[in-house]
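User: Is it possible to get a 3D structure for a protein together with its bound compound? The compound here is zinc ion. I've pasted both below.
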Amino acid sequence: MRNGVMVLLAFGAAALVVVAIVRHDRQQAENRAAVAELEARQAANAKPRVLEVAPGLSVQVTSSMPPNAQLLCSKCLHAFPPSQIHTVPTYDLEGGRYVGSYLCDEHWKAALAETRARIMADASVDEVGSMLEVLVRRGVTKDRLRTFTEDRSRDEAALAVLDALERGRLVVPLP
Ligand SMILES: [Zn+2]
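Assistant: Yes, that's possible. Here is the predicted structure of the complex:
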């Protein structure tokens, strides 16, 4: 009787181990499937899509910047390496809101001055909001932004952010 119980216990333990191993294998298979799916998605994203935007003019669409990328300055339309490009919120008259513009070492400060002048002249809540929104959309964290806007009035906050951009204390990351 005692032996019988032992056998049952031993059998029970073995069954538990088997169940555990099966579960473990299934978990691993699920993990592998998830990893494979992630890798496939990354590969699809990493593969540049080429779009023809006009006859003879194609652009590459990628989720991240390739190492040899060059960016166009929106003022002089020359191509520069990312190290010489600054992202500046500039007002888009047509769209009626701010957008993030790429500008070269030579042109970014003038664009920033234009934005500053516009904010100082007559900025609505929406306009200031859309200027700050550009920065957040481009990867500036709200906490980082708050270090310049906290305890300031709306216009002062906007100007403090523009100052920080000009002095390089606030940098808008490139994609
Ligand atoms: Zn330029």
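Residues 68-166 form one domain. The longest strand covers residues 85-92.
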